[in-house]
């Protein structure tokens, strides 16, 4: 109030914001209500000034205003560690966030793809300029490429929707290529069957992009041609028909402006069906071994074996070995064997084949043998031989012409441990040989299912032969019985003949001479004609000729005999009653 009435004006700081007058309900009183939206521009102290004359200063009433303000500017700037804002993996960078115009001091926070980063430097505040600053040390990773980095200024006394402001930038993180090799197609990741295709892909992740891809096989650079084809410098390595030569370790490599990288290796195994190795079928001791090349290793083996002169046999085993004791039939000659396998990939097309002789599996020749004469016959005794299951003995007799040895007999040798031990000896196998003479030989052989060894030949010594030859009066029991029987028969025949002759002899007159007419050959006749005198005795012998008689020869023979008998009888006593000239009795006269 005043006279004249005052004029009322409002100032924001020194800026006039309202000068309108207004009446009030009180007489001579003026009032002015200020309706002023508070902004960042009129956030200074408000003053109400009333003045009605220039002669006196206006009356002033001031009002201090505390206006909460959000930051009006937030900005991010790279301080170090970048090249034109480009980051690189492995190189740390420092970034600065500045927020201006906030009241009171704002809170500055860092966010990386909505991930709150708490590791940053202390925040600073300048009240006069209402400026807040924050620094962040960033270690960029590959995954940060393309991520958003944000700095958010939040007024703590205001609602976040009204008191927050942020600055955001997209990170450009460069790095050398990141590579990974993978197999494309059916089947397991690291396996392929022979003749099937092999398809490998090199997955590349790089910033900046790569220009070319290289492939490595077992750490050696793959070059066009040979087993690889022409296209070996793209992200795909394609082999139309894989072979076992493609089994190995694969890797790809690529480069960009940051650097060159080689991927981790991937091992590829090429499976193939069984086939014979260089060794094929082998005989190890008493076991057949089927040696095959296959991947994976065969789990089933098929055997076809045929001993010499025997029926073939088909056997299936789960192992590459076949013991000989599973084969039926003799193995003393040859064995024809074939084998093949199956490993789940395929059956073997061409089986392994080989023919075996088992001579080396036969026992060694017996070495510790001797001959003895006991129990009325010769014996051979030997120490057992390793790997022998039975023994044979052979006896060789000297032929009648004394020019060669002839096999007399072959027999088995038995085990006589009980008798040998009773005698205090160490011989374990023995056989009886019967009789042996000078020049005879006895052979001992050690045998098993694979055949017999060479024979050890023994010839009895002179001392042994003398010990085996008793004096002539020490006859063998069987020989003595045989001789006694012959003598008895002869005595019986002589006695019988003598009795018959006595019974037939005349008792009253002497018997007439008996002259036997013989047909003589030229030799006998010449002998009789040329010999002057002959003492004729009973049982004289003249070589006989034919049994056919002729008349002329009989008469001549009779006259000659008569003449010679007379001469003989004239000189000596009368002839005995029975005179016999015998070579071959033809008839009696």
Summarize the structure.
This protein is mainly beta.
Give an overview of the whole structure.
There is one protein chain. The chain is built from six helices and 36 strands. Strand 17 and strand 18 (220-221) form a beta hairpin. The protein has 589 residues and is mostly beta strands. It folds into seven domains: 7-63, no CATH class; 73-170, Immunoglobulins (Immunoglobulin-like, Sandwich); 175-264, Immunoglobulin-like, CATH 2.60.40; 271-361, Immunoglobulins (Immunoglobulin-like), CATH 2.60.40; 369-467, Immunoglobulin-like (Sandwich), CATH 2.60.40.10; 470-504; 512-589, no CATH class. The strands form seven sheets. Strands 15, 17, 18, 20, 21, 22, 23 and 26 form an eight-stranded mixed beta sheet that branches.
Characteristics of this structure?
589 residues, mainly beta, Immunoglobulin-like, 7 domains, 8-stranded mixed β-sheet, 6 helices, 36 strands, 13% helix, rod-shaped, disordered C terminus
